[in-house]
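Final report, closing paragraph on structural work. Over the funding period we assembled a curated collection of sequence-structure pairs, and we close with a single example.
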Amino acid sequence: MNLAIRALQPEDPPVIAAAFEQLGWPKPVSQYDQYLKDQHEGTRDVLVAWIDDQYAGYVTIRWESPYEPFEGIPEIQDFNVLPELRRQGIGTALMDAAEARVATRSTTVGIGVGLYPDYGNAQRMYVRRGYLPDGRGLIYDGRQVAPMETVRNDDSLTLMFTKVLS
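Its predicted structure, as stored:
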């Protein structure tokens, strides 16, 4: 297995979108075109993993998190490894690369994780990597969920974590 991690390139968006379309997880090409634009503007870095010539996964670093309590803390966002390629070290390599990149500009990194079972592997991975909850409780669509408030358990419901980088 020849794993390579590199920055998102202009030819990547249709390949990545097609891979997710095959999984029934539609992610439009326009999302990755926006990521390219963000990367060019310096507001986001996108790291893409390839095994030989096959797309395997990606992670993004948003240099200015929209999550207000992370003021000045870069946030790892939109971390995906294709299901058939998981548990082969690709996710670990992507996270290692993302954390190393963040460490060049910050001593702390943030990340959010969803709360339904599809996020179980990510939840465990982040804890094993030393991420700790930021102590603010549940966040829905970027805002703190008030005690006793009912919210939908979808991709907008997250628990936010931080990690001090050494």
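The longest strand covers residues 54-62. Helices lie at 12-22, 29-41, 90-103, 120-128. We thank the funder for supporting this effort.
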